[in-house]
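note to self — DONT lose this again. spent like an hour looking for the file last time. sequence + predicted structure for the chain T wanted, 328 res
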Amino acid sequence: MGISLRARVVLWGRSGGKCAICKKALVARGDLAADDSSAIGDEVPLVARAADAKRGSCDVFGPEKRDQHTNLILLCQEDHRLIDAQSAKHTVERLRQIKAAHETQVAAGWSPEDKRRQQDDEVYASSIDEWSSHSDLDHWGDISAALISGDAPVVRKSWYDAARELAPWLLVRTWPGRYPRLEYALGNYAWVLSDLLSVFDRHADLEHDWDGYLHTRKFYKSREWDEARYSELVKKYDAHVSLVCDLFLELTRTANYVCDHVREYLFSGFRQDQGALVVRCNIGFDLRTSFLRPEYRGAERVEKPYRGLDDFRTRRYTRDCFIGGRQP
């Protein structure tokens, strides 16, 4: 499962970004400005994850609770090594006391604005976790390969269903209003996702679930041969496929944009280990694997880089990458 963004925002925020033992100011692992390796913050479980660990037993609760902020303490690397080496002294109960005392001390120094900011950040983080889960960011390459690599866009049914719920959920969210650019980025994602699903639906076989996937109907096929009609339908089919693929590239672009804003406003280490979202596609007669990293660049990095489907039909050819050729 891993540590959620909300757990990290709660842990780092309520710890004041400091080691709970030595009070040293820490930085997240994604912050390349850290020169002193000991200043990198470690999110240490109070009850250890491993079943044979010296400190506590992970069997006291299920896996979903091991990475919650209530089971984590923020330490510098030196103190992390210290408590592991002196496990008899640094029991789970002792570490809980240290954590509680440290967070109480941090909160005592907060102004009313500091408290509101922390509350807002936790609200944002919860929504980002929902967005990340429903978008299935961890399997983005697999999703893109199915949709883009073949001659007909294919979408995993579970992803499609989650996306159907996510788009309206994002559009009706009430936000704290603290980070408008982050909110715009999430709205941008919802608009692109809605248009992607709408375009895909036009020629999707939504009544059949083939091995867990929804397929695009090859509507140019006909039992009666008519060369002129066939050529016309093939051209329309190719235009439809390229538009679906380019909309998914745009969705990847705006997902990376959301991640950029999360790192800027909420937590600098968000998805740093995983890196940027990339599109995986198999191209050519030998089906060699190619990777694309669609992102908004330069003047495109504005509040609303996506301006609707009609505008995108032309604008997609000016993006950093696109699948379809220009249509006459």
